[in-house]
Design goal:
Length: about 260
Protein backbone atom coordinates (compact mmCIF):
# COMPACT_ATOMS: atom_id res chain seq x y z
CA UNK A 1 0.00 0.00 0.00
CA UNK A 2 1.07 3.55 -0.68
CA UNK A 3 0.67 6.21 1.99
CA UNK A 4 0.20 9.87 0.98
CA UNK A 5 3.51 10.92 2.53
CA UNK A 6 5.50 7.77 1.75
CA UNK A 7 5.72 7.14 -1.97
CA UNK A 8 8.51 6.40 -4.41
CA UNK A 9 8.18 8.96 -7.22
CA UNK A 10 10.39 9.24 -10.26
CA UNK A 11 13.65 11.06 -9.61
CA UNK A 12 13.70 14.38 -11.44
CA UNK A 13 17.43 15.05 -11.10
CA UNK A 14 20.60 14.38 -9.15
CA UNK A 15 23.00 16.84 -7.54
CA UNK A 16 26.78 16.54 -7.59
CA UNK A 17 29.78 18.70 -6.82
CA UNK A 18 32.42 19.38 -9.46
CA UNK A 19 35.35 21.77 -9.01
CA UNK A 20 33.75 23.02 -5.79
CA UNK A 21 30.44 23.94 -7.45
CA UNK A 22 27.16 22.03 -7.14
CA UNK A 23 25.48 21.08 -10.41
CA UNK A 24 22.34 19.22 -11.48
CA UNK A 25 22.28 16.08 -13.62
CA UNK A 26 19.36 14.50 -15.44
CA UNK A 27 18.20 11.09 -14.13
CA UNK A 28 20.20 9.05 -16.66
CA UNK A 29 23.45 10.93 -15.94
CA UNK A 30 22.75 10.79 -12.22
CA UNK A 31 22.20 7.03 -12.32
CA UNK A 32 25.58 6.43 -13.97
CA UNK A 33 27.32 8.78 -11.54
CA UNK A 34 25.64 7.17 -8.52
CA UNK A 35 26.56 3.66 -9.70
CA UNK A 36 30.19 4.77 -9.96
CA UNK A 37 30.15 6.34 -6.48
CA UNK A 38 28.55 3.27 -4.87
CA UNK A 39 31.45 1.15 -6.15
CA UNK A 40 34.13 3.65 -5.09
CA UNK A 41 35.21 3.17 -1.45
CA UNK A 42 36.90 6.57 -1.44
CA UNK A 43 33.51 8.32 -1.82
CA UNK A 44 31.19 9.05 1.10
CA UNK A 45 27.52 9.70 0.30
CA UNK A 46 25.69 12.23 2.49
CA UNK A 47 21.91 12.61 2.34
CA UNK A 48 19.13 14.21 4.33
CA UNK A 49 16.54 11.45 4.91
CA UNK A 50 18.60 8.81 3.11
CA UNK A 51 15.76 6.24 3.19
CA UNK A 52 13.81 8.23 0.61
CA UNK A 53 16.82 8.84 -1.65
CA UNK A 54 17.97 5.21 -1.53
CA UNK A 55 14.49 3.73 -2.05
CA UNK A 56 13.66 6.14 -4.90
CA UNK A 57 16.98 5.40 -6.66
CA UNK A 58 16.38 1.63 -6.41
CA UNK A 59 12.84 2.08 -7.75
CA UNK A 60 14.16 4.08 -10.70
CA UNK A 61 16.88 1.49 -11.38
CA UNK A 62 14.21 -1.22 -11.41
CA UNK A 63 12.15 0.68 -13.98
CA UNK A 64 15.17 1.16 -16.24
CA UNK A 65 16.89 -2.22 -15.88
CA UNK A 66 14.44 -4.70 -14.34
CA UNK A 67 14.04 -6.23 -10.87
CA UNK A 68 17.08 -8.51 -10.99
CA UNK A 69 19.44 -5.61 -11.76
CA UNK A 70 17.67 -3.55 -9.08
CA UNK A 71 18.42 -6.22 -6.46
CA UNK A 72 22.12 -6.00 -7.33
CA UNK A 73 21.88 -2.22 -7.16
CA UNK A 74 20.27 -2.46 -3.71
CA UNK A 75 23.13 -4.71 -2.53
CA UNK A 76 25.57 -1.99 -3.59
CA UNK A 77 23.71 0.46 -1.35
CA UNK A 78 23.67 -1.97 1.58
CA UNK A 79 27.38 -2.70 1.13
CA UNK A 80 28.08 1.05 1.09
CA UNK A 81 26.16 1.46 4.36
CA UNK A 82 27.94 -1.53 5.92
CA UNK A 83 31.27 0.06 4.99
CA UNK A 84 30.17 3.18 6.91
CA UNK A 85 30.28 5.31 3.78
CA UNK A 86 26.73 6.69 3.98
CA UNK A 87 25.70 9.51 6.32
CA UNK A 88 22.23 10.90 7.00
CA UNK A 89 22.02 14.46 8.34
CA UNK A 90 18.43 14.00 9.51
CA UNK A 91 19.29 10.92 11.58
CA UNK A 92 22.46 12.56 12.87
CA UNK A 93 20.46 15.57 14.04
CA UNK A 94 18.13 13.24 15.94
CA UNK A 95 21.03 11.30 17.49
CA UNK A 96 22.78 14.52 18.53
CA UNK A 97 19.53 15.82 20.04
CA UNK A 98 19.09 12.62 22.03
CA UNK A 99 22.67 12.85 23.30
CA UNK A 100 22.21 16.49 24.31
CA UNK A 101 18.66 16.60 25.68
CA UNK A 102 17.56 12.97 25.90
CA UNK A 103 15.15 13.28 22.96
CA UNK A 104 15.42 14.25 19.27
CA UNK A 105 14.71 17.77 18.05
CA UNK A 106 11.00 18.11 17.20
CA UNK A 107 11.72 19.42 13.70
CA UNK A 108 14.56 17.79 11.75
CA UNK A 109 13.61 19.09 8.31
CA UNK A 110 16.44 20.40 6.15
CA UNK A 111 15.69 24.11 6.62
CA UNK A 112 14.97 23.71 10.35
CA UNK A 113 18.28 21.92 10.89
CA UNK A 114 20.27 24.61 9.14
CA UNK A 115 18.36 27.43 10.84
CA UNK A 116 19.00 25.81 14.24
CA UNK A 117 22.72 25.51 13.49
CA UNK A 118 23.24 28.91 11.86
CA UNK A 119 21.56 31.68 13.82
CA UNK A 120 20.02 34.21 11.49
CA UNK A 121 19.81 31.74 8.60
CA UNK A 122 16.50 32.03 6.78
CA UNK A 123 15.18 30.52 3.57
CA UNK A 124 11.60 30.74 2.35
CA UNK A 125 10.32 27.49 0.85
CA UNK A 126 6.63 28.19 0.58
CA UNK A 127 4.26 29.70 -1.93
CA UNK A 128 5.32 29.78 -5.58
CA UNK A 129 8.82 28.53 -4.74
CA UNK A 130 7.64 25.44 -2.93
CA UNK A 131 9.11 23.06 -5.52
CA UNK A 132 9.48 20.12 -3.15
CA UNK A 133 6.05 18.79 -4.12
CA UNK A 134 6.14 20.01 -7.74
CA UNK A 135 9.22 18.40 -9.26
CA UNK A 136 6.96 15.77 -10.86
CA UNK A 137 5.97 18.53 -13.31
CA UNK A 138 9.60 18.70 -14.46
CA UNK A 139 10.48 14.98 -14.56
CA UNK A 140 10.33 14.90 -18.38
CA UNK A 141 12.73 17.86 -18.71
CA UNK A 142 16.49 18.01 -18.33
CA UNK A 143 17.46 20.39 -15.47
CA UNK A 144 18.95 22.99 -17.83
CA UNK A 145 15.40 23.68 -19.06
CA UNK A 146 13.89 24.07 -15.59
CA UNK A 147 12.70 27.42 -14.21
CA UNK A 148 15.44 29.21 -12.30
CA UNK A 149 13.51 28.90 -9.02
CA UNK A 150 13.31 25.11 -9.40
CA UNK A 151 17.04 24.83 -10.10
CA UNK A 152 17.83 27.07 -7.14
CA UNK A 153 15.62 24.97 -4.84
CA UNK A 154 17.40 21.74 -5.79
CA UNK A 155 20.84 23.32 -5.41
CA UNK A 156 19.88 24.94 -2.09
CA UNK A 157 18.91 21.50 -0.76
CA UNK A 158 22.30 19.97 -1.41
CA UNK A 159 24.11 23.09 -0.14
CA UNK A 160 22.08 22.95 3.08
CA UNK A 161 22.85 19.25 3.51
CA UNK A 162 26.61 19.80 3.21
CA UNK A 163 26.57 22.77 5.61
CA UNK A 164 24.61 20.79 8.21
CA UNK A 165 26.86 17.72 7.86
CA UNK A 166 30.03 19.79 8.40
CA UNK A 167 28.56 21.43 11.50
CA UNK A 168 27.35 18.08 12.84
CA UNK A 169 30.84 16.63 12.42
CA UNK A 170 32.29 19.34 14.64
CA UNK A 171 29.57 18.91 17.30
CA UNK A 172 29.88 15.11 17.32
CA UNK A 173 33.66 15.33 17.63
CA UNK A 174 33.39 17.67 20.63
CA UNK A 175 30.83 15.34 22.25
CA UNK A 176 33.06 12.30 21.59
CA UNK A 177 30.26 10.70 19.58
CA UNK A 178 32.28 9.74 16.51
CA UNK A 179 33.40 6.13 16.29
CA UNK A 180 37.22 5.94 15.92
CA UNK A 181 36.78 2.92 13.64
CA UNK A 182 34.19 4.30 11.23
CA UNK A 183 34.20 8.09 11.57
CA UNK A 184 30.41 7.98 11.84
CA UNK A 185 28.27 8.90 14.81
CA UNK A 186 27.89 5.72 16.82
CA UNK A 187 24.86 3.64 15.71
CA UNK A 188 24.40 5.81 12.59
CA UNK A 189 24.83 2.97 10.08
CA UNK A 190 22.40 0.71 11.97
CA UNK A 191 19.83 3.52 12.14
CA UNK A 192 20.20 4.21 8.40
CA UNK A 193 19.43 0.57 7.55
CA UNK A 194 16.54 0.40 10.01
CA UNK A 195 15.02 3.61 8.66
CA UNK A 196 15.35 2.32 5.09
CA UNK A 197 13.62 -0.97 5.93
CA UNK A 198 10.75 0.77 7.73
CA UNK A 199 10.31 3.34 4.97
CA UNK A 200 10.15 0.73 2.21
CA UNK A 201 7.64 -1.28 4.24
CA UNK A 202 5.34 1.76 4.50
CA UNK A 203 5.60 2.27 0.73
CA UNK A 204 5.32 -1.31 -0.47
CA UNK A 205 3.84 -3.26 2.39
CA UNK A 206 5.22 -6.66 3.38
CA UNK A 207 5.62 -9.75 1.20
CA UNK A 208 5.11 -12.90 3.23
CA UNK A 209 4.30 -16.61 2.95
CA UNK A 210 0.64 -16.91 3.93
CA UNK A 211 0.87 -20.63 4.75
CA UNK A 212 3.89 -20.02 7.01
CA UNK A 213 2.04 -17.21 8.81
CA UNK A 214 -1.01 -19.43 9.32
CA UNK A 215 1.18 -22.26 10.69
CA UNK A 216 2.92 -19.85 13.08
CA UNK A 217 -0.41 -18.43 14.21
CA UNK A 218 -1.71 -21.95 14.95
CA UNK A 219 1.49 -22.81 16.84
CA UNK A 220 1.28 -19.65 18.95
CA UNK A 221 -2.38 -20.33 19.78
CA UNK A 222 -1.43 -23.80 21.04
CA UNK A 223 1.43 -22.40 23.14
CA UNK A 224 -0.88 -19.72 24.53
CA UNK A 225 -3.49 -22.33 25.49
CA UNK A 226 -0.84 -24.40 27.31
CA UNK A 227 0.38 -21.34 29.25
CA UNK A 228 -3.18 -20.42 30.25
CA UNK A 229 -3.74 -23.93 31.60
CA UNK A 230 -0.47 -23.71 33.56
CA UNK A 231 -1.51 -20.38 35.09
CA UNK A 232 -4.90 -21.83 36.01
CA UNK A 233 -3.30 -24.89 37.64
CA UNK A 234 -1.26 -22.70 40.01
CA UNK A 235 -4.22 -20.45 40.78
CA UNK A 236 -2.99 -17.24 39.13
CA UNK A 237 -5.87 -17.42 36.66
CA UNK A 238 -9.38 -18.38 37.68
CA UNK A 239 -11.42 -20.77 35.54
CA UNK A 240 -13.20 -17.80 33.93
CA UNK A 241 -9.81 -16.41 32.81
CA UNK A 242 -9.68 -13.53 35.29
CA UNK A 243 -6.61 -12.91 37.48
CA UNK A 244 -6.66 -13.91 41.13
CA UNK A 245 -5.13 -10.96 42.95
CA UNK A 246 -5.15 -12.89 46.24
CA UNK A 247 -2.95 -15.65 44.80
CA UNK A 248 -0.68 -13.11 43.06
CA UNK A 249 -0.13 -11.17 46.33
CA UNK A 250 0.69 -14.40 48.18
CA UNK A 251 3.20 -15.47 45.50
CA UNK A 252 4.88 -12.04 45.52
CA UNK A 253 5.09 -12.06 49.35
CA UNK A 254 6.55 -15.56 49.25
CA UNK A 255 9.15 -14.56 46.65
CA UNK A 256 10.31 -11.42 48.48
Amino acid sequence: PFLPTNTLPKLACGQFKQDGVYQLANPKENEARLLKHLKDDSVRIVAHFSAFDIAASIEQFSRHHGPDAARDFMRLWLDKIDKNLVSDTMLREKLLGIADKGFPHPDCSLVACRARRERGFSRQKKGANFWRVRFCELAHLSPEFWPRSARDYALDDVDDTEAIWIDQEAEARLADMLSPDTGLIKAEAIEIKAQLALYVMTCRGLVFDRRYVEDQHSKLKQEQAALIEELKSCGILKQDGKKSLKVLRALVAQAY
